[in-house]
Amino acid sequence: MSCEGPILAIETSCDDTCAALVGEDGTIRSSVVSSQGVHDRFGGVVPEIAARHHVELVNLVVDDALARAGASLDDVGRIAVTQGPGLVGALLVGLATAKSLAAARGLGLVAVDHLHGHLAATSAAPDPFEPPFLALVASGGHTFLAHVVEHARYEVLGQTLDDAAGEAFDKGARMLGLGYPGGPLLQHAALGGDGAAFAFPRAERMRGLDFSFAGLKTALLYTVRDLGEQESARRRADLAASFQRAIVEALLLRVERALEATGLDRLTLGGGVAANAELRERVGSLGVSVRVPPVELCTDNAAMIGLAARHLPVLAAADALALEAYATGEHLL
Ligand SMILES: Nc1ncnc2c1ncn2[C@@H]1O[C@H](COP(=O)(O)OP(=O)(O)OP(=O)(O)O)[C@@H](O)[C@H]1O
Ligand SMILES: [Mg+2]
Q: What share of the chain is helix, strand, coil (3-state, %, to 5)?
């Protein structure tokens, strides 16, 4: 089975329908993300609606990714697809599409873990880190630190015990009446606010490399309640800036501990929270070399899935038919 030629990657784990064409050398030739804005009015993703939209969009998005790269299916060397974790109904659409393409074209298929994808988002050409390095992945559903030993071999050093960092942004934004998705809205609301106005906890007394954001969430809830509706609205920028700073500093505290514990001197970021401007700025002062993906590769996309696939085993199309989606993150974590 020949695998020569670029990787056509498909990602449908949540509410973004994504396809990308990635070269073997890590060049991203195209990356198309079709976001299903329909969920915003519900304040979160509705799984059944997401799956139905993926069905409508996936072929168009794949065609678009090929067209933008000036390529056709004849050029593709192998197919990569997100197998999990995510919404099973949504994942199944991508998996079925990938299996069909692989079977019809006699191409190999690579099953990729979504979190491995977030972690691999910094591995694009031209200047990726070679392992070993420390990776922080902070997304909507997960937050963990990993010692990347080889491209597809990680040792997870710490992870969140409750909410993910992105989830904390989303819940904090809701408490401040900012809407969904919360991360970018809260970042915007924090502009001009004082990050030191409210002393929110960073779970700093918790030792080790695990994260916890539940206490922070409760602290914001009580602060907003005590201030009352009018005063909370008047001080929204300060509340948002202080809440954002607490999340960023909780992340950085564990990163610093992990760098010290491992002796590693290079760090990568990944996941939607890596799009946060304050986090991106603050990692620059850690005194180690840092790679942060461009903002469009932080949130869900298929280019990161293609990048991760370069270092993973290729299944023959016949074997790939048995692949099943998985909902939870235990494969990597
Ligand atoms: N600028 C930002 N600042 C802070 N958080 C952000 C920003 N942009 C996006 N986010 C957060 O990132 C999350 C989305 O990231 P991502 O797409 O990686 O998560 P997901 O795919 O839903 O979850 P997972 O990858 O864990 O399955 C949301 O929680 C969102 O609020
Ligand atoms: Mg994600």
A: 45, 20, 35
